[in-house]
Amino acid sequence: MVMLLFLTCGLGVSFAADLTEAACRHGSESCVEQYEQDESSALHVELLQAQVQIGAMRGPPKESLAQTDAQVAGYAENEGNKYVLVSGGEGSGTTMVARILCESPNAIGIPANWELEELSERAQSKYTPSILRRLGGKTKQERRSEDPYRFLWLDELPDQPYITNGIDARNTETKSKYLNQVVDDSRFLLQEAKGVNTLVHHRSMPFAKNSTRTPFLEDIPELATQIAADGSAYLILVIRYPPKAWLSHAKPDNYHLFLARIEQLMSGDYEVPGLKILLVSHEELICDPKPIVEELARQLDLNIDALMASPQLAKADDIVSSHDDDSEYNRMLAVYEAKWEAERHEFPLYDQFQKSHAARCTLKH
Asked: What does the DSSP assignment read for 156-212?
């Protein structure tokens, strides 16, 4: 059974829902009904009570950024190492979420397709010369050829067995070679970076402008436990309105294959033992980031003040209004919206989650 933690705004309340095979055994419509009931109940609680805790989930006291330097040395000793993959459909905002998480003093990211200058100076300082050499260089162009994930997460057979059916048909020797390289590189980063116990990576579904490359999710728990015996594995799925994801840099023609995988993860039809899955609404993150960022910080034991100071969040308003006067963008948006309207019934959980969370932004503004 996989627990999906829905990160929501409103009063900063989080609620958890166990979506098991039994809950969805009668088809996706039953899942949607259950989801709507859960969300309705959570919203009702929000209206009645400003301070709500669900089950045994308790948030740690907030720490100021000024206190972090004195405390950061204890992170790696007191907490288990974490491997965090930020993923979702291509163009969903996975890079933004990964860069936000990298701002915490006890986290370091693998900058696959983004530049270090996009982080704060404080976060950049974690990348020592030896770490940059290990990653292949300072720029993303230099690092590209050294990226083992491009070869590890390659579903290259003509029928794409993993992307279509979740079947891992990779060559055993090739998988072992690049998995070991990832483990060695990850251990090096965690040992070299001061006070770091959380490794953040991001790869969308698909990635590298290639529809044959996608994260093999079963690798994540394996990587976490090989990197450190007490390592834990997290998958953060970023959910975004598909027409706008397509207009970002995605390819709408094959997007349904990857939406289908996300739908399976949300319903519990596709389970990965040892992997904790967190869902984040891109729209809510942009319009009201603090409650979502607070919950991510709590779940991953990251510093909330450092995350909220991310340069990425300072750009949120620009993201919202960047295409207001772009007639070609809006023309294509209308085309893609018609396409999504005809297809969204195939992905009811994804559609319901995206719509309900985007609607909260409308209510707040």
From this structure: -STT-HHHHH------HHHHHHHHHHHHHHHHHHHHHSTT--EEEEE--BSBTTBTT
Pairing label, strands 275-281, 3-7? parallel
The vertex-42 CA angle with 41 and 47, nearest 5°, equals 100
What is the chain's mean pLDDT, rounded? 79
Residues 191-200 have pLDDT tens digits of: 999 899 999 9
Q: State how beta strands 198-202 and 15-18 pair.
A: unpaired
Kindly report, residue by residue over 249-268, the tens digit of the pLDDT: 777 888 999 999 999 999 99
In degrees and rounded to multiples of 5, residue 326 shows phi and psi of: -95, 100
Predicted confidence (pLDDT) per residue in 105-150, tens digit: 999 998 877 788 899 999 999 999 999 888 876 666 665 666 889 8
Distance CA 235, CA 19 (A): 16
Is residue 235 helix, strand or coil?
Answer: strand
Q: Give the phi and the psi of residue 159 in degrees, each rounded to 5.
A: -90, 0
- Please give the Cα distance from 207 to 32 (Å, whole number): 29
Q: What is the mean pLDDT of each run of 10 residues along the chain (365 residues)?
A: 48 34 41 44 32 31 36 45 95 94 95 85 93 76 73 93 95 95 92 92 84 94 92 96 90 90 96 96 93 95 96 76 77 95 97 93 62
What lies within 8 Å, CB to CB, of 48 at 6+ separation is none
Task: Tell me the pTM.
Answer: 0.79
Question: Distance between CA 184 and CA 145 in Å, rounded?
Answer: 17
Residue appearing with tokens 């079947």: 167
Question: Which tokens in the block code for residue 245?
Answer: 């994801």
Residue pair 81/224 in contact (Cβ under 8 Å)? The answer is yes
